[in-house]
Structure formats: C-alpha cells, structure tokens
Amino acid sequence: MLVLRLSSKASAAGRCRPNFKIGNTEIPLGLASVHLVLLSTAIVNLFTKSVATVAGIVFTIAFFFIFYVSERINKRKHAQAEHQMQEHFQLLHQETIDGESVGIRPGNVLVTVRDYNTLGQLRWALERNDTDDTDVVVLAARMQGPGVAETDVKMEQIFSEFEQTLFTKAVAIAESFGKTIELLVVPARDVWSAIVQTANSLRTSAVVAGLSSKMTSRSRPSISSRMGGNA
C-alpha cells in the first residue's frame, strides 16, 4: 500500500493523513506510520512465534506461486480465444467500392480507424447514431508503397493480423452498445484521398476521425465532417 501510495496520483480525499510536502514530493506520514506498526508486529511475531510465522510465510509463497501460474494460464487461454475470434471474419473482395455492392445505405457515417488502442471516435459515433436507421462504417486504410498498384495487392496484404485485431476491438465496442457496424478495409497510397473517395462512393453523410498524435487539426488536409451528395 505504501508503494502504491507513492506512485498513485489519486485525489487527497482517500489518503491516510497526516501528509506533508518536501518540495514537489509528498510524504505520506500517516500511511508510513501504519506500515511501521505492522512491520514491527511482524518482526515481533517472527521471534516470539517462529513456527506460526514461518508457516504463514510458506503459505503466502505457495499461494503466490499458484496465483502466478493461474494468471499465466488464463492469459494464454484469453490469447487463444481472441485469436479464434479474429478468424471469424469472412472476407469479401470487391474491385470497386459502392454502397450497393457492399450493402451499405446512403447517408451512412464513416468512422476512420488506425489504432485499436484509440477507438474513441467509434464510441462517439455509436452514441449519436441509431444503426437501425443509419449505417456506421468502420474504415481502415492499408498503406501501400508508391510502386505497388492497388489492383495487384493480395488480400492477405490488405487484411493482416493487425486489421484482424483492429476489427475485433471495433466489433467488441459495437456489441457493448448493442449495435451493428460495417467493416471496410481499402488499400491506399494516401490516407486522405482514400477517405474522400470511399465516402464519395458510399454517399456518406458524415466522416468521423480520431485525434492524430502526429498531426494537428490545423496541419491535416481539409476534409469536411459533413459531406454532400458529391463529397
């Protein structure tokens, strides 16, 4: 608890008092006092009740080992379950993208995604749209080199393990809202052009993008969040 207290940035409401500061460092005197009382009690027990103390230590170490092994096994099972869940995607290849061929209605909302750790824009879109009336389309653009033709790209190059994980996370978020989403991945040499062309082909009404860690809203190309019939 003392180590957690020193590393925690929690508010002062739940802290054990008294506390005082030395410069920018806060010293948890109250919690340290409790720690010293418990430590001194343990040391006294070690010398006065050695058999019980040693047995308690052995018992604690044994349970720690059991919990550690159990955690590793559960992590392995979770990874296997996640991998199996990723394999459930059925890939449908289309040479061109249009609403009719992929079954997406006009007036949809296009959500661009690039990192499965930052999908706040998808949550934002699902909170504000009823997918029974408006399709929410999750778009991932797979970057290709300048010398590679988009028509020559193989399916496994477009939909890699990264896209599997990305779409798995997206589906989990949609299920938490009790809503459905459409998944779309396209090869692209320029992300912004791919977004605009896809939105135009699908007759998208709105494009939702997350904040970029590399580009600010002023430095990125101008893409209207509300798009007309011809985008």
Describe this structure in words.
- With 231 residues, the chain is α/β, with parallel strands linked by helices.
- It has two domains: 2-84, no CATH class; 99-209, 3-Layer(aba) Sandwich (Rossmann fold).
- Helices cover 47% and strands 13% of the residues.
- The protein is built from eight helices and six strands; from the N terminus they run αββαααβαβααβαβ.
- The chain has helices spanning 2-7, 29-48, 50-86, 99-102, 120-128, 155-158, 161-177, 191-202, and strands at residues 20-22, 25-27, 109-112, 136-143, 182-188, 206-209.
- The strands form two sheets. Strands 5-4-3-6 form a four-stranded parallel β-sheet, with helices on both faces. A two-stranded antiparallel sheet has the order 1-2.
- Helix 2 (29-48) packs across helix 3 (50-86), helix 3 packs across helix 7 (161-177) and helix 5 (120-128) packs parallel to helix 7 (161-177).
- The N and C termini lie far apart (57 Å).
- The model is unreliable at 147-152 and 221-231 (pLDDT under 50).
